What we know:
Elements: H1 3-6, H2 8-20, H3 28-40, H4 46-51, H5 53-60, H6 78-99, H7 103-127, H8 132-136, H9 138-167
Helix pairs in contact: 2-5, 3-9, 6-7, 6-9
Amino acid sequence: MKFNEVRWIIIVMFFVLSITNIWFGLFGVICMGLPIFQALRGKGKLHCKSHCPRGSFLSKVVSKISLRNSLPKFMLTNGFKNTLLIIMGVMLTISMIHSGGNPKKIAFGLFRLMGISFIFGIVLGIFFKPKAWCAICPMGHSTTLITNLKTRNKFKREQIEEIKKKRA
Length: 168
């Protein structure tokens, strides 16, 4: 069996384990950190395409009950995605502040954020296309922003080098 066929089990295991022992909620850091890490390494949206267990779950499970409608156009705008990213970031920040550094409370905050976004993804997948969440996912949007910034900076560096060569 290939990893792509079973990666959806990871998200199910995350929730089952976190419900039985909240310490497993700390693994939410991996789900949120891995896409950013890969984007910073120049891998773009590799996580979304190949590793994301939530996207795999939506494809494998929610696709069977999806109404397959298109998302409203306003949800695909950068303004909406930026707003969602800010809301999720603020929710995470507030959870971390309220945890007071207590690892168990941090685990619960991560579990809660993962749970809210998971439920939201399932609801979107039922009413719209199965992977509708993936189109507006804050982590996917973050990786796009990082990739665009890295590309823009690389282009600027190349332009500066070109100007320096012309002046020399």
